What does this fold into?
Amino acid sequence: MRKDIAVFLWFVFLLVLPMVGMADTYHDNLRTCLGGYPALCNHALLSAEHAQQVQKAEYETNLRT
It folds into this structure.
């Protein structure tokens, strides 16, 4: 019984840990994208809502340069 619980907890840990890293990666990418420089942005990671915000940021940055 204890071994089953330990295996289950280890399995959950292995599933959750990569998701934490993905959240950090997503937010780091979003922050970079909102800077307005498309060459540094991974657009494929963005949600539809964030993609619209990034498109606006890129447009505004383009107007300034």
